[in-house]
Amino acid sequence: MNRLNERAFDILNTEIKRCLKGNPLDRSSYQSLRRYLDRLCLESGNHMTFAELLRAIHGIVPSFSTDVVRRAAAANTKTSEVGGWLKWGVMLTAASVGLVAFANLPYPMIRTPVAATAPLILLPSFISMDRNYRAAIANVEQADQLVNQATSAADIDRGTVHVADAQAALDRLPVWFLGYQPRTYCTFFGCTWKFTLDEFEQARKQIARMDARIFQEQNALVDYAAASADLEAARETYAIASTNVDKNQALVTQQTAIDRLMAVPAETLAGRLARQQAGNADRDLASTANSVAGDARTSNLVDAAKAFAMQAATMSQDAPHPVARWREIESLWEEATAKLRSVQPEEPGYAEAQTKLAEYQSNISATRIRLAAEESATRSFEQANALIPQWQSIVASDPGDPQLVSLLQKILIELNAIENGTTPYEEAQTLRQQAQEAQQKLSTTTKDE
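The structure corresponding to this sequence follows.
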C-alpha cells in the first residue's frame, strides 16, 4: 500500500492551490510541498499518520493549515481501515466458498459427516443433483420421442441435441447418490429423483441406443439425399434430351437412382421417405417409359414411311415409265401410307404422321392417274399395232379395197387416244404420221378414179 492515498492527496493539493492564489510569493515552497506529496503517493509502506504529515508539511511550509492536515490524515487512515476490512472480507469469503465446495464434493466420506452435523452446507450439491435429474429425465423423454418417432430430418437433428444434453446430465449425477434422498433438503424443498441403480443403467443404455440410432439415421439421410439428387438430375436430363437414345439413357439413370432409394434401410426415417419417393418415381418412370416407347414406335413408323416414300419418289423420276414400274411405285406409296395409318391418335407423333399421310395419299392418286394413262396408252398402242398387219395384207392384195379406209380410221383412233407422257407416245406419233400420210394418199387415189 502507498503511504499517502488519493483522497488525502486531493485534500492537501486543494489547499496548496488555494494558498498559491492568496500568496503567490511563496510559490517555490508550495511547489516543493507538492513534489513531496507526489513522492508519498508513490512510496510503499505504512500510511502517514497525522503527526508525521504535520511535521513533514510544516517543515516545508510552516503556515500550512493544521485542520487541513488533520482531515487529510483522517482520510488516509480511514481508507486503510476500509481496505484492510475489504481484504479480510475477500479472504474470508474465498475460504468459505472453498470450504463449501470441498464439503459438496461427491465423496461419501466427506459428505456423510457434513450431512450429519451441517446438512445445509450441502445445499448447492442437492440443488445441482435435483436440476441434473430433472434435465436427464426431460431430455431422455424428448430424445426418445424425436429419435424413435422422427417425422423429418429436423427431428433427428433436434433429437441429437437432447441426447447430448441427457448424456451430460447423467454424467453429472454421481452413482452414489442413486436412491439417496437428503432428509433435510427433501423436507423443505421436496425431492423429485427416484432413481435406482437399475433405472440409471437403463437410462444410460437407452441414451446409448439412441446415439447409435442417430448415427444410423444420419448415414441413411446422407444416402437418401444423394439418391434423391441423382433422381432429380436424371429427370432434368430427360427434360432436355432431344433424341430417343438420350431419353432412354436418362430413364436408365432414373431407374438406378430409384434402386438406390430402395437400398436405404427401411427401418430408418430416410428409408421410409425413400420408399415413398421411390414409389412415386417408379409410377412416373413407368408412364414416361411408355411414352418414350410410344414415341419411339411412332418415330420408327414415320421413318419407315419416309424411306418407302423416298424410294417411290426416286423411281418416279425420269418419267414416262412402263406399267410395271408405275405399279411398283404405287405399291411403295401404299406401303408408306400403311405405316402412317398404324400411328394411333394418342401417340405423340400422330399429327406429323397425318400430315405425311395426306401428302402420300396425294402422291398415290397422282401415281394411279399416271398408271391408268400408261395402261390405256399401252392398250391403244397394242390394238393399233394389231390392225397394221391386217391393213398391210389388204394393201398388198388389193390397194383399192374399201376396207383400207376404215382400217386406217381405226388405227388413227387408237393412236390419237395415246396421251403425251406415256411410254408409247413417241412411237405412236410416228405411226400416226404414217397412217395420216397413207390415208391422204388413199383419198387422192380414190378421187382420181
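Residues 380 and 418 are 7 Å apart (CA to CA).
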